[in-house]
Design goal:
- It holds the Pfam family Pectinesterase.
- It catalyses: [(1->4)-alpha-D-galacturonosyl methyl ester](n) + n H2O = [(1->4)-alpha-D-galacturonosyl](n) + n methanol + n H(+).
- Belongs to the pectinesterase family.
- It is an enzyme of class 3 (hydrolase).
- Keywords: Aspartyl esterase, Hydrolase, Signal.
- By secondary structure, the protein is α/β, with parallel strands linked by helices.
- The chain has two domains: 75-327, Pectate Lyase C-like (3 Solenoid), CATH 2.160.20; 376-632, Rossmann fold, CATH 3.40.50.1820.
- The strands form four sheets. Strands 1-2-5-8-11-14-17-20-23-25-26 form an eleven-stranded parallel sheet, with no helix packed on it. An eight-stranded parallel sheet has the order 3-6-9-12-15-18-21-24, with no helix packed on it.
- β27 (378-389) and β28 form a beta hairpin.
- The longest helix has 18 residues, at 615-632.
- It is globular and about 85 Å long.
- Residues 1-24 have low confidence and may be disordered.
């Protein structure tokens, strides 16, 4: 293998942006016959297609809604083909676990034109779409009210909990979006919202992530009515506030009720935003109860010094309290049918090779990061989907020696990153180097804490082991000679996967193979979360679902040292100079010795924590792994 500096991730970033921007609904490639919504009312449990031209199961969205079974046993998707659907729709409370997915917001439009003065119906009956159900997702749709400048006219009325809107447009004028419900949590990601007066209003806890908020007249953007007992109201993060060219005087918000809460974080504000920012709705008492705040506002409309005195400018530390985890905390579950967070996830990039090197090079100026370099003696087979959770796919990459004349040992390799960050590519240089030595290696993607908490990652990695064994003939693997290796958090996961075989750790699987491994390699992965040497705190709490005081049984269950029914395996410990990453090692070795099970320890006395990423220790680490596995596995 060659060692060199890592190249820029610019082209990868461009590809990622392009791929996300062009992700449209994938309608199932199955025979579709029109269905009778009256005969099937409340009975459908499978994915369905709506198409105005008759090429789907139903011609209208309303017919599809009538057909869906309430309290579904598992999620389904309603694919909506392009068209302008003039329908006034209500999704009732018993409708749950459904995704409504259009092709794009430009060509998949739900529209109606009711308004408050029409037949004296009042604001709350003017909706185009009313959402009362829970655990629902909406993608690639436009929802509009076309009544015009005639007073209150709602496009979207939402009161359900765990609602997600992605890549959607909400078009209207006054009161475009009624985001409400005292117990409702709603996520709007990559959406466009326009209106005139109070066009985002209500009592929900709603996070607007990377949205464009467009004002069509001099007026107010938000009118929150947050209940006193609710900690968060409306939170706008990484958004952009725009306006029509003639619009010059817009307020960020005014309180529909006392105790209203609205916060803008890292938001670009156009010059249409007035310097004072906020309005009290001519109620001085409201100034004492509302919480209006900003952090990191920028652009011509960002005027921290001129904001009203009863608003707030958050410190960087205070702004951290508006992390998506915090905003959507609640007494109800945060997970969906598959165990993933209902509001999806964003890849957390805090742990990567470039940033790790920039940090470590200050103390170790001689180091160079090891870059991925293909090998002429290794076959690369990438992008294998080993597990599906709804639309979520988990993948692994396999590296095999080209000239192998017999079945080879396999190594499943798990990256680190504090259980919340990192990427399987961090393991690729070592995977290729081990493949050059005759092993078949697989680097594995698994769900991190922003997506799903413990034990999801354990279930994922065990499924990866099973998948590799099921596909052993494809890669030339001896299924009786499979080891697992991990670094940092990945080391902890590798040890826990390798030492467990009870149902709580296995998860559900349809694969006819065991997740058992023959040996474990742990590079600076803790063996006990609660231990005198351990310093695990916030990142461990995020993964384990709470602090030790809150979840002691989970902290212990996730600690290989404290397993109640351990399946001990030979373990290689490769360590840095920092004791915190060795927590539980000596006690575990004592237990292994009692059982007569082999272990090795190798310590690099003057090394950074991620020593395996750098040229100074890479070859030595490689040699230790190979020497250990030669003693345990048959090559």
């Amino acid at each position: 293998m060659k060692i060199s500096f890592r190249k820029s991730g610019f082209f990868y970033l461009v590809f990622l942006v392009f791929a996300v921007g062009n992700s449209f609904a994938q309608v199932p490639n199955v025979e579709i016959k029109p269905l009778d919504s009256e005969k099937l009312k409340g009975k459908i449990e499978h994915d369905i297609v709506v198409a105005q031209d008759g090429s789907g199961h139903f011609k209208t969205i309303g017919e599809a809604l009538d057909a869906i079974r309430v309290y579904l046993p598992e999620p389904l998707t309603v694919y909506i083909k392009p068209g302008i659907y003039k329908e006034k729709l209500v999704i009732l409370g018993p409708v749950t676990n459904v995704t409504f997915e259009g092709e794009s917001p430009e060509n998949t439009i739900i529209t109606f034109d009711d308004f408050a003065a029409k037949d004296n119906m009042g604001t709350f009956e003017t909706y185009t779409l009313k959402v009362l159900g829970n655990s629902l997702t909406f993608k690639n749709l436009t929802i509009e009210n076309t009544a015009g400048n005639v007073g209150q006219a709602v496009a979207l009325h939402t009161e359900g909990d765990r609602l997600v809107f992605e890549n959607c447009r909400f078009l209207g004028n006054q009161d475009t979006m009624f985001a409400s419900g005292e117990n409702s949590r709603q996520l709007y990601r990559n959406c466009y919202i326009e209106g005139t007066t109070d066009f985002i209003f209500g009592s929900a806890t709603a996070l607007f992530d990377n949205c464009v908020i467009h004002s069509k007249s001099d007026s107010y953007i938000t009118a929150a009515s947050t209940p006193e007992w609710v900690e968060y109201g409306y939170v706008f993060k990484d958004c952009k506030l725009t306006a029509d060219s003639e619009v010059k005087k817009v307020y960020l918000g005014r309180p529909w009720r006392d105790f209203a809460k609205t916060v803008f974080i890292n938001t670009e504000m156009g010059d249409h935003i007035v310097p004072e920012g906020w309005h009290n709705w001519s109620r001085e008492n409201a100034e004492k109860t509302v919480f209006y705040a900003e952090s990191g506002s920028y652009g011509p409309g960002a005027n921290a010094e001129e904001r009203v005195g009863w608003s707030h400018q958050l410190t960087a530390e205070q702004a951290k309290e508006y992390h998506i985890y915090k905003v959507f905390e609640g007494k109800t579950k945060t997970v969906d049918f598959y165990g993933n967070r209902w509001y999806g996830y964003q890849k957390e990039g805090s742990y990567n090779l470039e940033d790790a090197w920039k940090k470590d090079v200050r103390n170790f100026p001689q180091i160079k990061p090891v870059e991925i370099q293909s090998s002429e003696s290794v076959t690369e087979s990438k992008g294998h989907v080993y597990k599906k959770l709804g639309s979520r796919e988990l993948k692994l990459d396999v590296f095999s020696p080209i000239k192998a004349e017999s079945l080879r040992p396999g190594i499943v390799m798990i990256h680190g990153g504090g259980w919340k960050s990192g990427d399987k590519e961090l393991q690729v240089p070592m995977a290729i180097a081990l493949a050059e030595k005759g092993y078949v290696t697989a680097v594995v993607e698994y769900r991190l804490s922003p997506e799903a908490q413990y034990p999801a990652a354990i279930h994922d990695v065990k499924e990866a082991v099973r998948w590799l064994k099921v596909h052993a003939n494809e890669f030339g693997i001896d299924t009786s000679q499979v080891a697992i290796s991990g670094s940092s958090a990945g080391g902890q996961i590798a040890a826990l996967v390798g030492m467990t075989n009870t149902a709580a750790y296995e998860g559900n699987s349809e694969l006819n193979a065991s997740s058992e491994v023959k040996a474990i390699v742990d590079m600076d992965g803790v063996l006990a979360f609660r231990h005198p040497e351990s310093a695990e705190g916030q990142v461990a709490s995020e993964w384990l679902g709470g602090t030790y005081a809150q979840k002691p049984e989970v902290w212990d269950a996730a600690s290989p040292l404290y397993l109640k029914s351990p399946a001990y395996k030979p373990i290689l410990f490769i360590q840095s100079q920092y004791p915190r990453f060795h927590a539980g090692r000596d006690e575990l070795i004592a237990l292994l010795n009692e059982k007569g099970i082999y272990s090795e320890v190798h310590t690099f006395p003057e090394s950074p924590h991620p020593f395996w990423l750098y040229d100074v220790w890479f070859e030595k680490t490689l040699a230790h792994i190979d020497d250990f596995l030669l003693k345990i596995l048959q090559k």
